[in-house]
Amino acid sequence: MLGQEQEICSLRRQHWFMALYTQIWQQKMDTLKVCVPSFIYLVQNNLLYVSASNLDAATYQVTYQMKILTTAMFAVIILRKQLKGTQWIALVLLTAGVALVQLSSSDKGSSGSNEHQNRLLGCVAAISACCCSGFAGIYFEKILKGSDVSVWVRNVQLSFLSLPLGVMTAFANDSSLILDKGFLFGYDAYVVYLVVLNAVGGLLVAMVVKYADNILKGFATSLAIVLSTVASVFMFDFVITFQFAAGTALVIGSIFLYSHEPKKPAANPMMKVM
Which of 64, 85, 184, 237 shows the greatest Cβ crowding within 10 Å of its Cβ? Predict the structure, then answer.
């Protein structure tokens, strides 16, 4: 029995490696298509770093919520998705609600700016990051839904370009530290936990995008922000303010408004007879 189980595991590994070889190496053009959003995500992360360095916390949090609207905009342009007027209103309410919730939970002492910050550069970087987020998300959604390739293979393809570029960025910024103390210097249990958490979260997001869409992912993420803030009441003695309550009401209301389907008028039975 033990020998059979080992043989089955070996066959599964061979099948997995052959699938990766076929999907990534033999279909190079398909892999390059997936490399587009991975490169854009890398640019987005660097833009967010520039934005956070040049804006106070409040301005940064509010500006970055525009990604909800840019995602909807690119869904209409690229996927030809049709949104009703009530759904656009719901998206605007969701953006405002998330901004209020995050502002209520931000550190008031960190809202001040310093003389070394360039607010124009920070705003441009934040808006550019929102556009990158919206385009990359919708582009990746189109790739996921446009083929029968599994979510797992798509995530491997997505990391194919981002990993080398990320390593090059790390060496460009901290080459001396990496060469002196090693690439994994500073990786404690908490950092490893965050890496694993983000990896699992990335797989879940990919599944949501494949079987739902990016706009619904935005609603789920916004609701998660509200729930995490509520959890901080019990874990970190966070005090619920009117601003937080108003933002929560907007988020919950926008979810119902987005999914609301107006009732169609009932057909007149006399018209059928005629």
Answer: 64
What are 141's two structure tokens? Answer: 């959604």
What's the rounded Cα separation, in Å, for the pair 124 and 47?
Answer: 9
CA angle 210, 214, 217 (to 5 degrees): 95
Q: List for the chain the helix, strand, coil content (%; round to 5).
A: 80, 0, 20
Provide the 10 A C-beta neighbour count for residue 114.
7
User: C-alpha angle 51/55/56, rounded to 5°?
Assistant: 135
Buried b (16+ CB within 10 A) or exposed e, 22-60: ebbeeeeebbebbbbbbebbbebeebbebbbebbbbbbb
Structure tokens at 204: 């879940």
Q: Which amino acid is at 228?
A: S
Tally Cβ neighbours within 10 Å of residue 224.
Answer: 11
Contacts of 44 (CB under 8 A, 6+ apart): 129, 132, 133, 136
d(CA 178, CA 172): 10
- Tell whether pTM > 0.70: yes
Q: What is the mean pLDDT of the chain?
A: 80
Query: DSSP letters of 169-205?
Result: HHHHHHHHHHHHH-TTTT--HHHHHHHHHHHHHHHHH
Residue with tokens 């490399």: 35
Window from 25-29, 181-185, 238-242, 260-264 with minimum mean pLDDT: 260-264
Rounded distance between C-alpha atoms, residue 178 and residue 117, angstroms: 28
Q: Report whether 101 contacts 227 (CB < 8 A).
A: no
Number of other CB atoms surrounding residue 62 within 10 Å: 18
